[in-house]
Design goal:
The complex is a heterodimer of chains A (311) and B (285).
Chain A: H1 2-24, H2 26-53, E1 56-57, E2 65-66, H3 70-78, H4 80-111, H5 116-131, H6 138-142, H7 150-158, H8 171-184, H9 189-200, H10 203-211, H11 217-228, H12 230-245, H13 249-255, H14 267-277, H15 281-306
Antiparallel strand pairs in A: 1-2
Helix pairs in contact in A: 2-15, 4-8, 4-9, 4-12, 4-14, 8-13, 9-12, 12-15, 14-15
Chain B: H1 13-41, H2 45-48, H3 63-73, H4 79-110, H5 116-126, H6 135-145, H7 152-159, H8 162-172, H9 177-185, H10 190-201, H11 203-218, H12 234-242, H13 249-278
The chains are: A mainly alpha (311), B mainly alpha (285).
Chain lengths: 311, 285
C-alpha cells in the first residue's frame, strides 16, 4: 500500500510542478495561442468532426442521425466501387510511394555529386513538376487518345503499334498512365529535404571514412551517408505517404470523373464523389476516416522500420 | 562550409559516367512536359494541329499571348479582378502564415513548457492530412463562421499550414540559446527578443515558408468555398479558358505557361535559401 501512496504523492508533485511551470510560461502560451487556435479550428477539429459524422447519416439539410457503424459495414460489404477504389489506391501507394521515395533519395544523392551550379540547375529541373501547379495536365495532351497524341504518334511512327491507344479511357492502361504522371510529380518536399541533408553532412566524416577503408560509394552510402540522413529519411517518408495516398486530382483531370469502369478511381475520388456530389456527408466521413487511419498506421510502421536504417 | 574540390578517392570513373547519363536521361523525362508547355505557347495554331505532331516550333509567334489578352479583355468579370483576387489571398495568406507560424515555432523550438511537445507532434501528424480528408468538416466550420463565399475561407486556414510551422521550428533550433539568454540579461522582453534577435537570424526560413505558402495559394482554385464570380481566383479563370476547347488551344498554351512560370521563377530566385532551411527539416527522435 505504501508504494501506491508514494506513487500518488509523486504524481501529485509532478502535477504541481507542471502547473507551476505552466504558470511561469505564460508568455510562451501567448506566443503559441494564435497559431494554436487556427490550427485546432482548421486541422484538428475537422478530423474530430469527421470521425463523429462517420457514425451518422447526414445530408446537410436534415440534422444528423446516429446510425452506429452502419456506414463502415456498408463501405466494406455493400460498396463495390469502394473496394475498387481501395484496390487502386493501394496499388498506386504501394508502387508510387516506395518508388517515388527511393527515387527522391537516389536522385538527391546523385545530384549531390555534381558541381555546385549544375547541382542547383538539376534540383530546379527535378523539383519543377511539383511546383508548377496544373502543369501535369500537359500529360493529357502527350497521352491523348487519337493519333495526334505525341506518344501515340511516336509509337505509330516507330511501328510498335498500328492503331492509336486510348491511354486515358481504356481501363487496361489508365492506372499505368496515372502512375507515370504521379511518379513524375513525386520528387517533392522530401526530395528537397534529402538534397539539403546531403549537403549538410560533415565532410570530416567522409574523410575519416577514406582513412578507415571505405572502398566505394556504396559502402560510403550505407556506413556514413544513410545514418546521417535518418531525420530527413523520416520526414521524407511522411511526405511520400501523404502524396501517394492522396492521389485524386491527377486521376480526376486525366481520366475523367468517374473514370471508365472506375479503373482509375481512388479512395479520395470516392470521398469527393460522396462528399461533394451526393452530399452523403456521414458516408463520406467514414471514407475519410478509413483513409486517415490507414495513413497514420502506415506512417507508424514505416517510421519504426526506418529507425533501423544503418544500425 | 568546407567543400571538397578535388576528386573523391572512392569514386570509380565508370560509376560517375553512369550517374551522369542516368541524370541526363531522367532529367529529360522530367523536363519534357514543361518544355512542351513553353514551346506550345509560341506555336501558331496550324503547328499545334500539325499531323504528325511536331514537338518543337518552327515559326515561333507571340500571337497566343495576344489572343490571351483579347480573351481576358472581353471576359464578363474584368480579368484583372481574378489576378487581384489571387494576388490578394497569396500576399495576405503568406504574411499571416509567416507571422503566426514563426511566433509558435519560436516558443516550441526554444522553450520547454507543458504541452509544447504534444502540440508539435500533433503538427507533425497533420503533415499527413490530405486537403480532401478535411474538406467536408472544413466546409461545415466555414459555414458556422459565416466565411463561405469570402476571401477569409481561403486566407485564414493558410495561416495555420503545419508544414511552415514544422520547418520554422526545426530551423530555429539552430539559434544558440546563449544569444537569447544574453538578450534577456540585457533586459529585453520576449516580444523584443523575437522581433530583434530571432527573426533576423532565420531569414532563409522566412523565404522557404514564403515559397511554400505562395506556391500553394497561387495554385488555389478555391471553387469549394467561393461562388461569386467577382471573388474567384486566377487558376479558376484559366481553367475556364482551358475548357474553351480546340479553338482556344493556343490561348490555353500561353495561359498554362504563364501560370506555371511564376512559382518556378520564385523558386529559382530563392533556391539556396530553401535548401539551407530544408537541411534542418529532419524529424528527430
Amino acid at each position: 500500500m505504501s508504494f501506491l501512496k508514494k506513487y500518488f504523492k509523486v504524481k501529485r508533485k509532478n502535477m504541481h510542478i507542471g502547473w507551476y511551470k505552466a504558470k511561469r510560461s505564460k508568455t510562451m502560451y501567448l506566443f503559441l495561442l494564435p497559431y494554436a487556435i487556427l490550427f485546432t479550428t482548421f486541422f484538428i477539429l475537422p478530423v474530430l468532426v469527421s470521425v463523429f459524422f462517420s457514425f451518422t447519416y447526414y445530408n446537410v439539410l436534415e440534422p444528423a442521425q446516429f446510425t452506429g457503424v452502419d456506414n463502415y459495414i456498408k463501405l466494406i460489404l455493400a460498396d463495390d466501387v469502394f473496394l475498387i477504389a481501395i484496390k487502386n489506391t493501394f496499388i498506386l501507394a504501394a508502387i508510387t510511394g516506395p518508388l517515388g521515395y527511393i527515387a527522391s533519395f537516389v536522385f538527391a544523392w546523385f545530384i549531390n555529386e555534381l558541381p555546385r551550379y549544375i547541382r542547383a540547375f538539376a534540383v530546379l529541373i527535378f523539383y519543377a513538376p511539383i511546383i508548377s501547379g496544373q502543369a501535369y495536365l500537359i500529360w493529357a495532351i502527350l497521352f491523348s487518345g487519337d493519333a495526334y497524341g505525341y506518344i501515340n504518334a511516336m509509337l505509330i511512327e516507330v511501328g510498335i503499334i498500328a492503331e492509336p491507344i486510348l491511354w486515358l479511357t481504356n481501363p487496361n492502361y489508365m492506372l499505368n498512365v496515372v502512375m507515370v504522371v504521379v511518379l513524375w510529380m513525386s520528387l517533392g518536399t522530401g526530395f528537397l529535404s534529402f538534397v539539403a541533408g546531403l549537403q549538410g553532412i560533415d565532410v570530416s566524416q567522409f574523410e575519416a571514412g577514406y582513412v578507415d577503408g571505405v572502398k566505394n560509394r556504396w559502402q560510403e552510402l550505407w556506413y556514413i551517408t544513410l545514418p546521417n540522413m535518418k531525420p530527413m529519411l523520416l520526414f521524407g517518408a511522411v511526405m511520400a505517404i501523404t502524396q501517394s495516398f492522396g492521389v485524386a486530382d491527377v486521376t480526376q483531370n486525366l481520366c475523367g470523373f468517374p473514370s471508365t469502369d472506375y479503373a482509375a478511381h481512388t479512395v479520395v475520388n470516392h470521398l469527393i464523389d460522396y462528399g461533394s456530389m451526393r452530399f452523403e456527408m456521414g458516408y463520406a466521413s467514414a471514407i475519410a476516416t478509413v483513409l486517415f487511419v490507414t495513413m497514420v498506421v502506415c506512417n507508424k510502421a514505416i517510421q519504426s522500420l526506418l529507425r533501423k536504417v544503418g544500425t | 562550409m568546407l567543400k571538397i574540390k578535388k576528386r573523391k578517392p572512392n569514386r570509380s570513373r565508370g560509376g560517375d559516367i553512369g550517374i551522369y547519363l542516368l541524370l541526363i536521361f531522367v532529367g529529360i523525362f522530367m523536363a519534357i512536359p514543361l518544355i512542351y508547355a513553353i514551346v506550345s505557347a509560341f506555336k501558331p495554331l496550324d503547328e499545334i494541329f500539325l499531323y504528325p505532331p511536331r514537338f518543337f516550333v518552327s515559326h515561333p509567334t507571340f500571337a497566343n499571348f495576344q489572343d490571351l489578352l483579347n480573351v481576358m479583355s472581353d471576359s464578363w468579370v474584368p480579368f484583372t479582378r481574378y489576378v487581384f483576387n489571387t494576388v490578394l489571398i497569396t500576399l495576405v495568406g503568406t504574411l499571416g502564415h509567416l507571422i503566426f507560424a514563426s511566433m509558435a515555432a519560436y516558443v516550441l523550438a526554444k522553450y520547454d513548457f507543458p504541452g509544447g511537445k504534444t502540440f508539435f507532434s500533433l503538427c507533425v501528424t497533420a503533415l499527413l492530412f490530405n486537403q480532401w480528408v478535411t474538406a467536408i468538416p472544413n466546409y461545415l466550420v466555414m459555414t458556422r463562421l459565416g466565411w463561405v463565399d469570402t476571401y477569409l475561407a481561403l486566407i485564414i486556414p493558410a495561416f495555420a499550414a503545419p508544414m511552415g510551422l514544422f520547418l520554422m521550428k526545426q530551423f530555429m533550433e539552430q539559434i544558440p540559446d546563449s544569444l537569447i539568454e544574453a538578450a534577456r540579461i540585457d533586459g529585453a522582453k520576449q516580444g523584443r527578443i523575437f522581433v530583434r534577435i530571432v527573426m533576423p537570424n532565420v531569414k532563409p526560413a522566412w523565404l522557404t515558408l514564403t515559397i511554400f505558402s505562395v506556391v500553394q495559394l497561387w495554385n488555389l482554385t478555391g471553387t469549394s468555398y467561393i461562388y461569386t464570380e467577382e471573388l474567384k481566383m486566377l487558376p479558376y479563370a484559366l481553367q475556364q479558358i482551358l475548357l474553351g476547347g480546340v479553338a482556344r488551344a493556343g490561348v490555353s498554351a500561353a495561359a498554362t505557361m504563364i501560370v506555371m512560370m511564376v512559382p518556378i521563377l520564385i523558386f529559382l530566385f530563392a533556391e539556396s535559401n530553401v535548401i539551407e532551411t530544408m537541411a534542418s527539416s529532419g524529424i528527430k527522435e
